[in-house]
Specification:
197 residues; Aminopeptidase; alpha/beta; 7 strands; seven-stranded mixed β-sheet; globular
Length: 197
C-alpha cells in the first residue's frame, strides 16, 4: 500500500506544517477538503505544507488489518486492548501507516500538525497548541478542548503533542454542516496556514 504525501514547499519557508485526512476510514471528509484545495491552490506561500489526503485506505474506522491507527502509536500510555473499534494492535507502531508517520515526523521538524476527523464539532489540542487552536476556531467556529472526553492510549495526539512537543490539533468536523460550506472554510484555513500562520 502506498500513502500519498504531497508537499507545498518553497525554498525559503518560515514554518513546516503537516495536515492529515482520513485517519479513520469511515471519516472521509478530510480527503475531500485536502484534494479540493490542492486542485485549485497555488503552491507558493511563506510556510511549507505537507498534505496526506488519506492515511487509511480502508473504508471502515480501522485499517485493513483491523487496527485503529489512532491507538497504534508508540506512546508511554499504549496498552494492548480488546479487539473492538479502538483496537490498538498487538504492539505499538505495528502498522504500515503508523510507521510511515513516525518516520516522517522523525525526519522533519514540524511546527504544527493537524488531523481531520468527525463528528464531534470540536477543536481538540495536544501539547502547546492552544494558540493554533484559537486561530482555527476563527475559521470553523468550533469549541476548543484539551480533552476529548475518553481515554486515548496510543493516540497520535499523545505521540506528537504531549511526548514530542509538536503543537497537534484534531479537528472534529460537524457532519451536519453542508459539505461545500465546510470545504470553503477549510480552503480559507489552508490558505491562512500557508500564507499567514
Amino acid at each position: 500500500m502506498k500513502i500519498s504525501l504531497i508537499k507545498q514547499e518553497n525554498s525559503n519557508y518560515d514554518k513546516k506544517l503537516l495536515i492529515i485526512g482520513v485517519f479513520h476510514g469511515d471519516e472521509p471528509q478530510g480527503e475531500y477538503f485536502i484534494n479540493s484545495y490542492l486542485n485549485k491552490s497555488k503552491i507558493n506561500g511563506k510556510n511549507s505544507l505537507f498534505f496526506i489526503p488519506r492515511l487509511n485506505k480502508n473504508n471502515e474506522r480501522k485499517n485493513l488489518n483491523g487496527v485503529d491507527l489512532n491507538r497504534n502509536f508508540p506512546t508511554k500510555n499504549w496498552k494492548k486492548s480488546e479487539n473492538n473499534d479502538y483496537y490498538g494492535g498487538t504492539k505499538p507502531n505495528s502498522e504500515e501507516e503508523t510507521k510511515f508517520l513516525v518516520d516522517l515526523i522523525e525526519k522533519n521538524k514540524f511546527d504544527g500538525i493537524i488531523t481531520i476527523h468527525s463528528p464531534y464539532k470540536t477543536i481538540n489540542y495536544d501539547g502547546d497548541a492552544l494558540d493554533l487552536a484559537q486561530k482555527i476556531k476563527k475559521f470553523l467556529g468550533y469549541k476548543i478542548t484539551d480533552d476529548i472526553g475518553y481515554p486515548t492510549p496510543g493516540s497520535f495526539g499523545t505521540y506528537c503533542g504531549v511526548e514530542r512537543n509538536i503543537p497537534t490539533i484534531t479537528i472534529e468536523i460537524d457532519e451536519e454542516e453542508n459539505i461545500e460550506k465546510l470545504n470553503e472554510k477549510f480552503s480559507l484555513l489552508f490558505d491562512y496556514l500557508k500564507n499567514e500562520f
